[in-house]
Amino acid sequence: METRLDERFSDPGTEAAGWADTVKALEAAQISWLTTVRATGRDAWDDALDVVVEGVARRVTDRAKLERLAEAWLAKWDGSWVYEATDDGFRQGGHDAVVFAVEPAKVLAFGRKRTSPTDTSMLSTVEFTHTSHRP
């Protein structure tokens, strides 16, 4: 994995977000979205690592993979997301859902950190980082 800090969009003296931190942010996320945004799109977030995975989204129809995913979501959300794997995706409560996987071509990590943790005002000084990871 090649990791690089994009200094054009990062504050001086900051460091690239490590791959382990990027994976941890994805694993710890309570909810993840597959989205498309316009060039003017904007995300609202606070001290965090916002991770964007770019790549081709492919529909998952392999029953064994779907069963593993259903088990993983069941474990991650303490049983509150109970899905039945079908030949076409997931089923829950009589509703069907298609499942997609993104094969990463590039992973971007956008970090924001307050330089004064006790200052929570909107005017507090923050450091920004923009890191890219490529397989």
UniProtKB/TrEMBL annotation:
<dbReference type="InterPro" id="IPR012349">
    <property type="entry name" value="Split_barrel_FMN-bd"/>
</dbReference>
<protein>
    <submittedName>
        <fullName>Pyridoxamine 5'-phosphate oxidase family protein</fullName>
    </submittedName>
</protein>
